[in-house]
Design brief:
The structure holds 2 protein chains of 2 kinds. In chain A, 43% of the residues lie in helices and 8% in strands. By secondary structure, chain A is α/β, with parallel strands linked by helices. Chain A has a 5-stranded parallel beta sheet, sandwiched between helices. In chain B, the strands form 3 sheets. A 7-stranded mixed beta sheet of chain B has the order 3-2-4-5-7-6-12, with helices on both faces. Chain B has a 5-stranded mixed beta sheet with strand order 9-11-10-13-14, sandwiched between helices. Chain B has 13 helices and 14 strands. The chains are: A alpha/beta, B alpha/beta.
Amino acid sequence: MTIHSESSTGNQFSGSMKHAGADTGGSVENFMLPSAHPVQLVDPEGQHVHNDRYPLPDGPLLLSAYEKLVVGRRINEQANALVRQGRMAVYPSSHGQEACQVAAAVVLDPTDWLFPTYRDTVAVITRGVDPLEVLTLLRGDWHAGYDPRHHRTATQATPLATQLLHAVGVAHAAKLRGENTVVLALCGDGATSEGDFHEALNFAAVFHVPVVFLIQNNEYAISVPLKHQSVAPSLAHKAIGYGMPGERVDGNDLAAMLSVLSKAVERARDGGGPVLVEAHTYRMQAHTNADDPSRYRSQSDVDQWVPKDPITRLRTYLGNLQLLTEKEEQRIAAAAEEMAGVLREGLNSEPDIHPADLFEYVYTEKTSQLREQAAQLSEELLREEAGND
Amino acid sequence: MTDTALRKESPLTDASPSGVQPLTFAKALNAALADAMEADPSVVVFGEDVGPLGGVFRITDGLTARFGEERCFDTPLAESGIMGMAVGMAMNGMRPVVEMQFDAFAYPAFEQVVSHVAKMPNRTRGKVKLPLVIRIPYAGGIGGVEHHCDSSEAYYAHTPGLTVLTPATVRDAYLMLREAIRFPDPVVFLEPKKLYWSKETLDLEELRAAAAAAAGGGTGSGGTGSDTTGSAVGRAVVARSGTDATLITYGPSVPTALAAAAAAAEEGRSLEVIDVRSIVPFDDETVTASVRKTGRAVVIAEAPGFASVASEIVARVQERCFHSLAAPVRRVTGFDVPYPAPKLEHWYLPSVDRILDTVDELQWEDA
């Protein structure tokens, strides 16, 4: 996806410079520094906010993204319900963060790579991966249900920040192989404290590879608030130390997310090197169903974010433009229900699980040790079957 | 620190690598890397100081000059970064061969190794293979200061998904590294530092032909004990034949065990020496056949003995050879202490005397 800039002058993500700093012709500080406030293009009241550097995506693009936003919310709701019904082991909801999820998937070409975390199920489904294959991890049948190479979408990472290095590696290989590939790697605010976050950003900058790092700063790493994670002016400011541009964006503003990420992807694709984007958003629900958020934050804190919801503001904006008609809303609602139906139907069937799978895919060819153990388990199963007869 | 002070001399021979000639272990590894890069353009070598310097042990000497800095390059000083980037590069069609400069320097990369390198093929039901090699100069005997001499094989051997190899001969250094690089799964390739300067008179062209022949013989992780493919994965070798007891060992302790067997022979005792070579997968068949024949076994390894690879081998031998054993299987290992300072290491390392003393305790009828 490409959003054409209204003006490339002074745009920190434009151009195809080999090295950061020369990009704007201005000072290094001006080039590197993120915006003073998160970039916003549609405010919570649904009004367009003009930004010299970031154009507002056009109406048809916003409408199609809006549909994905509504579907994403429905995925979150349905998945939570399926956990309550015992159909899934766990679900880390991205309720409230759907604009980040949709934008991360939409700005990439099919040949680009996405590196999601465990909370980024909606991004992976939006990218087009079979929803039931995506939920395999959280259902508990296997660690990953889809083919990462086929979908150019890595497995959802559970350890924090480790996948950022894999993203750098994929990008570096792409560069060596002459592929025109951009890699978008997701992480949360908590992950920015990990060593691998540092190593990934440093490697990406030193090797000048096409990676866009997107931090979804949702204010909490399970129970730990951002102020205990970092005292940097913003997480985007961390980019300066690595020699790459950083940007802050309103993570609940899908228009801004699309515009900022598109520029970052475009810049990376043009050989401009890595970019760090921090999306300011909020996790509206518990970390997972095992979490008790009332122990670390008040409902009034959560309620403050309700008016900033990504869906309401875009609905108002598109409604004002008369792009979103009642008929269109009904069509989108039906699409969301259809997705929910797919999830319910798929998750309500019993998964096909074989004990012998324990020994599969550990090595390309089973070791003699694994062959012995597989035979042992097979004998156990035969005895059990005989006992049941 | 840079560790040039640790090197007694350049491990590389000056002679051009052709014809029958003395070849060092280090040069064999260097030739294996160069030949693998020549054979397969997707092979890339990276790590700390592996570029123009050629690695602190010079194992990557000349690779950047010959293949360019896109094929052999220095990274920032960050082991997790090296390892994590290798994962991504392998995901996207490359065959990374990374160097972890010293055994204990690999620990910052441990999460990447155990959580991702070892598990990626399993997590993705085999859709994402990680054909990469982690070269780790390991173990002691070179007078290195702390954090430079750990025997870390048990950590890797304990992690399903990793193939763990350690050559002990110059010939194996070449052939096993070539095999590791063409292997479809991730390999932890442990290089005994103290053997870097050991030499064998070999014909490199013959080694290249053997590697090419082995490449046609499948992946070879079956561990059948037969050596029809020339594969070292899952295949131990009898380094010395004997009839009275079996010494089972690997890597840096192989020459020590062979020296012990030679000394024992002078006293009229015939010891068989098994070089395990492939810690994972483990060749039960070769080991079991030997112990059933001799009825006695001593397992020798440098690492602390508690919860070690040596312990695992003892357990496997007891399980499989109990009725053939004339004495309990014994171990000669490092003590359960942090790797000692250089002036103490000779007390720590398994020695010929300690091996022979242990052999003497194997309940001999003439004792």
